[in-house]
Description:
By secondary structure, the protein is an alpha+beta fold. It has helices at residues 2-9, 55-61, 66-72, 155-163, 216-223, 266-278, 285-296, and strands at residues 31-33, 40-41, 44-48, 86-90, 93-94, 102-106, 111-117, 120-125, 128-129, 138-147, 183-187, 193-195, 206-208, 212-213, 231-235, 239-243, 249-253, 303-304.
Amino acid sequence: MLRSVAMLALCLFFPGGVAAESVDGVWPRGHYPLPQYSDLIGEIYVVPVREDETLVDIAREHNVGFEEIRIANPNVSIWAPRPGTEVLIPARHILPDTPREGIVINLSEMRLYYYSSPEVVETYPISVGREEFATPVGVTRTTVRVRDPSWTPPRSVREEAAARGEPPPEVVPAGPDNPLGRHAILLDLPSYLIHGTNQPDGVGMRVSRGCIRMFPEDIESLFDRVPPGTRVNIIDQPFKAGWSEDNVLYVQSFPQLEENVGSFEPVRNALDVVALVAFDDNLNPVAYRRLRQLVENPNGLAVPLRGPIRQSLPVPD
């Protein structure tokens, strides 16, 4: 029931591109009311595996990327989960610590946030550049939107293909073989785009040459609603902290990007992040142990830093 309602909700928009809340309280895919007195959106929940369903299938259906679903369910097979197994859906997110405007891309989290109106924030899983083609941090903006783009393979792609004895064409036209998918939003950074893909199983992994890849349905939803000139802030926050509406401090930890390992001390960074939002750099021993465990074993789950972590989670109908 939840799955069919969510698909129906994808069609509910006010003129001008602002998402509408449905009568029964279900928002379109990826949309949340922007909290005024909280840093959290969404909830963690569980779903049972259906017959012939992979963890990747479940991730895409629930607006989650490959790495997100994998690290949240380390004991569940990616490609052959047992039917009936309960799968944790990491759909609670701490909003990044940065101005809440335009598009925000958090590289370590492999997730895009779009502040599409003063009342709405959207979030979607993405792929980012692999280590040797790391997506750069910084502030840029969107420029041109292209529907059914062609793709000109860069020289590095042609050289790699030639080494395998498979020289690619100079230009790949629009169609099912085009790695850009059917929609592309160009950035004011030469050769960098936000685009779809013809290989959606890779969304949520570090597989691109620096571009931001999205599920085809997600980039299609954004395409007409992201105007040229939209601010795009590319950041890297592997550890986040924020407050819930009932004044509980939550934290969320992701694996550090390989190229940044050694550039800062992860536990010290996490302590600094918590101190910044809590106005207190003194953690009791229990909270410190939890923080250290999350940093050393990141699972992407937004959980309370202090107090019990809820064990029973809702299962949708």
